[in-house]
Amino acid sequence: MRPVLKLLSDDLIANVVAEARGLVCTLGVEIHNKAVAAMLCDHGAGTGGPDARIRLTQGLIDRALRTVPRSFRLFDALGNPTHDFSGDNVYFTPGSAAIQILDGATGEMRPPTTADYVRYVKLTSGLGHIASQSTAFIPADVHEQIADSYRLYLSLLYGEKPVVTGAFTIEAFEVMRDLQLAVRGSAGALREKPLCVFSCCPTAPLKWSAVTSQNLVDCARWSIPVEFVSMPLSGFVAPVTLAGSLIQQTAETLSGVVISQLANPGHPILYGGSPAIFDVRYETTPMGAIETMMLNCANSEVGKSLGMPTQGYMALSDAKQLDAQAGLETGMGAMLAALSGINSISGPGMLDFESCQSLEKLVVDNEICGMTYRLLEGIQPREDFPALPILQELLRDKHLLIADHTRRYLRSEIAFPGPTIDRASRVRWAKDGKPTLRERASREVERLIARYTPSRLPDDRKAELTRLMEAEAKRYGMTALP
After folding, report:
1. pLDDT, tens digit, for every residue of 420-431?
2. Among the four residues 150, 396, 426, 444, which has the most C-beta atoms within 10 Å?
3. CA separation (Å) from 422 to 112, 220, 350, 398, 416?
4. What whole-number distance in Å separates Cα of residue 200 and Cα of residue 212?
5. What is the CA radius of gyration of the chain?
């Protein structure tokens, strides 16, 4: 039996959804994109007041919920299936868009470079429990106007795993689309085998910026999957109560679902978010707070009740170093997210309120994800009934180390972590030099990067990726890529 976590009753979910629907139909949504606002009005939404907010209708919401896909799949750069976002299938991806990296040598945060990003892609390629890449951090050695497309370019050039990404400008979408087309070869092939998921983030409360709403429409028209990342902050720009924040998040996400499905009925989406509480003591948004985790898990329950696959920002930490707090918050988040059946869990590797990535933390988090997958398998009987023959053998031989039963089921029953996790005796640990967690993680980072196998994407497609990226860089005065 698979263990599960459920925080909301069916009645509470129904009330949350009903209130959210009422909000977007009564208060409406602030749309800072004239074309998107016009599209909504053309399909029956109204402005209905001096505030120019777009008020949806119950019919529009029902129509969108009828066409939104119940699941979809992702494929790697070679066209192999990697993700099936259906049921309670769970996949982990690193957190995205950090502006700092934790330097493995110094233990200090600093702006990342292209070299850091390439190391990250090579490392992620070898992490067995991390199913996809993300555009994890922003290299500081390129023009800011190409930061979005450049990260995707490096991910597609060096890695094969699908990419969770996003655009911070309207202009960036076009080249990011073309990079995906260069890998797939045609628009039809890209629609058939999606390679990326784009994050689209409404602004709290109940608002869509010109950039994000246009990115959403552009993704929909090209059938590029999106994840909705609503970010209510409980007690700041959302009600302080968890139920109140959940209502607001549901309203914001439902408005995105409507825009998506009007632009392209059947457009694949992940019903997600990155909610957080607001810690008034420090004016911070702790992603490692238990209430933040509860909001993510509850949001997934709402999304699943509406028939959609889900996403959440969990399995990350607000700590500034690879320390006990980092393990505590990441481990709890990963376990709770998986038990809730969140389909796409974003966060491994992240520190400092989603602003920093750490390669060393990422290898530790990979082990946390592996333990989480073992938990999801639950406890299954494997020739354990009747128990008498096994216990008779134990009493006779005084151990079961080489028993047939042990050899058949050892690997399937016990998940052995990699060398980052210390399970050696104290004597053996001391003989190895008493390595700290950071030291063990650093060793594993270097070991996996040394074992990196270059992407098997054909050379002509790699060359096209580089041609597109170089052309985009030249638009902003860069004569060469780093």
Report:
1. 999 999 999 999
2. 150
3. 29, 46, 22, 28, 11
4. 6
5. 23
**Positive or negative CA dihedral for 42, 45, 48, 51?**
negative
205: which 2 tokens? 């409360």
3-state secondary structure of 281: coil
Task: Tell me how far apart the alpha carbons of residues 280 and 58 are, in angstroms, rounded to a whole number.
Answer: 36
In contact, 125 and 466? CB cutoff 8 Å: no
How far CA 429 is from CA of 367, 419, 437, 444, 445, in Å, comes to 19, 12, 12, 16, 19
Token couple for 209 = 């910026």
Per-10-residue mean pLDDT for the chain, 482 residues long? 96 98 97 96 83 92 98 98 98 97 96 98 98 97 96 98 95 97 98 98 96 97 98 97 98 98 98 97 97 98 98 98 98 98 98 97 98 97 96 97 97 96 96 96 98 98 98 95 94
Amino acid 44 reads G
Distance of alpha carbon 345 from alpha carbon 153, whole angstroms: 23
Residue linked to tokens 């992940």: 270
**H/E stretch holding 345:** strand 344-346
Q: What is the DSSP letter of 274?
A: -
Contacts of 215 (CB under 8 A, 6+ apart): 166, 167, 170, 173, 198, 200
Pair of tokens at residue 443: 């060793």
CA dihedral 74, 75, 80, 82 (to 10 degrees): -50
Q: Output the six-digit token pair for 271.
A: 């019903």
What is the three-class DSSP state of 276? strand
DSSP assignment of 5-62 equals ---S-HHHHHHHHHHHHHHHHHT-BEE--HHHHHHHHHTT-B--STT-PBB--HHHHH
CA contacts within 13 A on the Cβ side of 301:
25
The tokens describing 458, both together, are 């054909």
Check residue 129 and give left, alpha or beta (phi > 0: left; psi -120 to 50: alpha).
alpha
Instruction: Answer yes or no: pTM beyond 0.70.
Output: yes
How far apart, in whole angstroms, are the C-alpha atoms of residue 273 and residue 346? Answer: 10
Whether the upstream peptide bond of residue 417 has omega within 30° of 0, thus cis, is no
H-assigned helices in 274-413: 290-305, 324-339, 359-377, 388-397, 404-413
Structural domains for the chain: 1-379+417-482 (3.20.20.480)
Residue 193: DSSP 8-state: S
